[in-house]
Structure formats: C-alpha cells, structure tokens
Specification:
Elements lengths: L2 E2 L1 H17 L5 H24 L4 E2 L1 H33 L2
Parallel strand pairs: 1-2
Helix pairs in contact: 1-2, 1-3, 2-3
Length: 93
C-alpha cells in the first residue's frame, strides 16, 4: 500500500496558509516565511517521493506547495515594492 509523503503534505498545507495570509493585513511576514518553507519542503518532498521506488506518493502535493510558495514570495516582493514606492512618494511632498 502506498503512503503519502509527509513533506509533500506539509508543503501543500504551508503553501495554502502562505497564499491566504498574503491577503490578510499584518500577516505578510508570516506568509513570506511559510512560502519559503513550503518551497523547501516541496523540493524535499519531490525528491523523497522519487527516491522511494513507488512506496510513497505525493508529487502533486509537493508541486502545489512549490507553486503556491513561489506565488506568495512574488506577491510579497511586489507588495514591499509598492509600499516602498508609496512611502517614497509621500516623503517627497
């Protein structure tokens, strides 16, 4: 019987938490941290599934965690750039 890889499950859960927390004001840093951890766990999970010789599954969950983590990190970077631009334009007045 095949089992799901724990790293893949954790990557997907953290990816979901990170993408949700990006849109909640004040939780952007938590989303960024969860996104980076989701990317790392997703890569580790994919490698673990590939090395398990068919005993583990979860490649899709690991990929979902990686993709959601990358989207979250990108959104957080864009948000920081936008906030910096707004603060910079206000100080020029």
């Amino acid at each position: 019987m095949q089992r799901n890889c724990g790293y893949a499950i954790a990557a997907m859960v953290l990816g979901i938490v990170s993408i949700v927390s990006v849109f909640i004001p004040g939780f952007n840093l938590i989303g960024l941290i969860c996104g980076v951890v989701a990317i790392i766990l997703g890569v580790v999970g994919k490698n673990t599934v590939e090395r398990s010789n068919g005993e583990l599954t979860g490649t899709g969950m690991a990929t979902a965690g990686i993709v959601l983590g990358i989207i979250t990190v990108g959104l957080d970077i864009l948000l920081l750039i936008a906030c910096g631009a707004i603060i910079g334009s206000m100080s020029a007045l």
